[in-house]
UniProtKB/TrEMBL annotation:
UniProt GO cellular component terms: plasma membrane
Name of this chain's protein: Putative dinucleotide-binding enzyme
Keyword Oxidoreductase (UniProt): yes
Biological source species: Methanonatronarchaeum thermophilum
An individual GO BP term: copper ion import
Keyword annotations from UniProtKB, A to Z: Oxidoreductase
Length: 218
C-alpha cells in the first residue's frame, strides 16, 4: 500500500513510517511543509532501516507530494495547523483514506488538557467529500514506535465509517503486538482524543514512561 505522511518529520510520523516501512509491503512518502526537510527525513528513516537490514521504499518531499502519491494519508501535525494545511492540500486530495492521530491538546499549569472540540471532525469538514477520515493512534507513544523490532503490546481505538476502518485495521495488524479496536463512528473521536492528555498526566504524576492502553476481558 502507498502511505503518505503529512507532517511526516515529527515524532508519530517517524515511528509509524519506520514500522510500516520495514519490508516490502508498503511504499512510504514522507511530507513536510519544507520539501528539503521531507527528503532529509526520508533519507534518515531509510538509513535506520538499512542498518537493520530491511528492504524499504521510502521517499520524501513536500506535503503535496505525500498526498498525491498515496492511497492512505496520515495527518501528523499540531491541531493549530489543521485548517491551514487541509486548505492548502484540498486540490490534491482524491478519495484517500485519511488517518488522524491529531489531538486538540494544551498544557496549563503543568497539566495537559483537551480543547472542547474534535480534531477528526474538523479535519473531515476541511477535506473534500471523497476523502474518508478515520481517527486512530492517539494513545501510542512515539518512542516505543521507534524501536521498530520490538512488539508493541497495546490497543488502538479506531473511529470512522466501516469500509475505511477496515483499511486502518489491516495497517494496525502489520505492527507486531498492536491490536485495533472499533470505537464507533467518527464522532466518538472526541473521546479517544481526550485520552492522550490523560495518559500524559498519568505519566508525569506517577513516573510511568510511555504509558499505552490495553483492554483486558476477564
Amino acid at each position: 500500500m502507498k502511505i503518505g505522511f503529512v507532517g511526516g518529520t515529527g515524532h508519530i510520523g517517524k515511528g509509524l513510517a519506520l514500522r510500516w516501512g520495514k519490508g516490502s509491503n508498503h511504499e512510504i512518502f514522507i511530507g513536510s511543509r519544507n520539501e528539503s526537510r521531507g527528503r532529509e527525513a526520508a533519507e534518515e528513516y531509510s538509513r535506520l532501516l538499512d542498518e537493520a537490514g530491511y528492504e524499504h521504499e521510502i521517499s520524501g518531499g513536500d506535503n503535496r507530494f505525500a498526498v498525491e502519491n498515496s492511497d492512505v494519508v496520515l495527518v501528523c501535525i499540531p491541531y493549530k495547523s489543521v485548517f491551514e494545511t487541509m486548505e492548502s492540500l484540498s486540490s490534491v486530495f482524491d478519495d484517500q483514506v485519511l488517518i488522524s492521530p491529531v489531538v486538540p491538546m494544551f498544557k496549563s499549569e503543568g497539566q495537559f488538557g483537551c480543547d472542547d472540540c474534535c480534531a477528526a471532525l474538523d479535519i473531515d469538514n476541511a477535506t473534500p467529500e471523497g476523502v474518508r477520515v478515520v481517527s486512530a493512534f492517539h494513545t501510542v507513544p512515539a518512542k516505543p514506535l521507534y524501536e521498530f523490532d520490538n512488539p508493541l503490546e497495546c490497543d488502538v481505538i479506531v473511529c470512522g465509517e466501516n469500509d475505511a476502518k477496515m483499511v486502518v485495521f489491516d495497517l494496525i495488524d502489520d505492527i507486531d503486538g498492536m491490536r485495533g479496536l472499533d470505537g464507533g463512528d467518527l464522532s466518538v473521536s472526541r473521546l479517544t482524543e481526550a485520552v492522550t492528555p490523560l495518559l500524559l498526566n498519568v505519566s508525569i504524576n506517577n513516573d510511568i514512561s510511555h504509558p499505552m492502553i490495553k483492554f483486558i476481558s476477564p
